[in-house]
Specification:
The chain has three helices and eight strands, in the order E-E-E-H-E-H-E-E-E-E-H. It has about 140 residues and is α/β, with parallel strands linked by helices. It has one domain: Glutaredoxin (3-Layer(aba) Sandwich), CATH 3.40.30.10. Strand 7 and strand 8 form a beta hairpin.
């Protein structure tokens, strides 16, 4: 809400911040319109830091000033409510970047691997993130 202090943030690179909550713009009634990237993860997931780094790097390379939010999925019930398919999950403007993820119906509180072009990987394909960010930027 306007007038309230901003949540603490940590610089995430040029034009990029990792936020604990929604961003506030006290000088304008309308918050800046920019893509919102959510990185959902479980505690102890070894691939979660790499997912954050991937978002930071690709956003910077594309020159997209994305708002990055981190959301820890604390237990199986939260996983179901969040429609969480595994850690790490990256969503751009609420949409999972993994093709076909919207058809998933198994929600888990666990790490998982992505089926990449050539192998199983701990991170999604970079091209999926690039496409999702470009699409979000075009909608702005």
């Amino acid at each position: 809400m306007p007038g309230q202090p901003r949540p603490p943030s940590t610089p995430g690179g040029p034009g990029l911040a990792l936020l604990a909550g929604p961003m506030d713009n006290p000088t304008n009634d309308q918050p800046p319109v920019r893509p919102v990237v959510d990185v959902l993860y479980i505690e102890g997931c070894p691939n979660y830091p790499g997912a954050v780094a991937l978002v930071q790097r690709v956003s910077a390379e594309l020159g997209i000033d994305a708002q990055v939010r981190l959301q820890q999925i604390s237990d199986p019930e939260v996983a179901i409510r969040a429609r969480f398919v595994g850690s790490p999950t990256i969503r751009v403007d609420g949409r999972d970047i993994q093709p076909g993820a919207e058809r998933q119906q198994d929600y888990v509180h666990a790490c998982w691997l992505y089926q990449g072009r050539h192998s199983l990987r701990g991170l999604p394909e970079e091209d999926w993130l690039r496409q999702a960010l470009r699409t979000a930027e075009a909608r702005q």
